[in-house]
């Protein structure tokens, strides 16, 4: 797929996809003879993972580290037991951070919904 199709599928802008390439989060799997970026379904899935991390305020360094962990865990070559366990522990630490940040977002959303309901009640009471 070319970058335009990837942008449509992921909901990311061309500029954002290029930025993620520049900072080393994702790379196109190939290029055409004319130099156009070509992406695979796996590349698109990687971009979707990055997109899901963004609302949780993961830094670029955290994203890079998390992607490196998942890449290593899913690599074809086998891992030593100690390395596998260490990577799983790091992955679990990121999961805990993600869970805590989701909880914070839920609380903020609840407060925002409560505020919107307050405004609706004020409007309804004036009619």
TrEMBL record:
Keywords for the protein's UniProt record, in alphabetical order: DNA-binding
SMART domains referenced in this protein's UniProt entry, alphabetically: HTH_MERR
Organism domain of life: Bacteria
Record-linked PROSITE patterns: HTH_MERR_1, HTH_MERR_2
Pfam families according to UniProt: MerR_1
Keyword DNA-binding: yes
CDD domains, alphabetized: HTH_MerR-like
InterPro entries xref list: DNA-bd_dom_put_sf, MerR-type_HTH_dom, MerR_fam
Molecular function terms, GO-annotated: DNA binding; DNA-binding transcription factor activity
Residues of the HTH merR-type domain: 1-69
Protein name, as recorded: MerR family transcriptional regulator
């Amino acid at each position: 797929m070319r970058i335009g199709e990837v942008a449509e599928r992921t909901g990311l802008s061309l500029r954002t996809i290029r930025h993620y390439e520049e900072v080393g989060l994702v790379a196109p799997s190939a290029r055409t003879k004319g130099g156009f970026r070509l992406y695979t379904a796996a590349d698109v899935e990687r971009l979707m993972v990055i997109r899901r991390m963004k609302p949780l305020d993961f830094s670029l360094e955290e994203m890079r580290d998390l992607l490196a962990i998942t890449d290593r865990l899913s690599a074809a070559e086998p891992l030593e037991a100690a390395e596998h366990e260490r990577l799983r522990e790091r992955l679990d630490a990121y999961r805990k951070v993600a869970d805590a940040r989701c909880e914070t977002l839920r609380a903020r959303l609840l407060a925002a919904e409560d505020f919107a309901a307050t405004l609706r009640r004020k409007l309804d009471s004036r009619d």
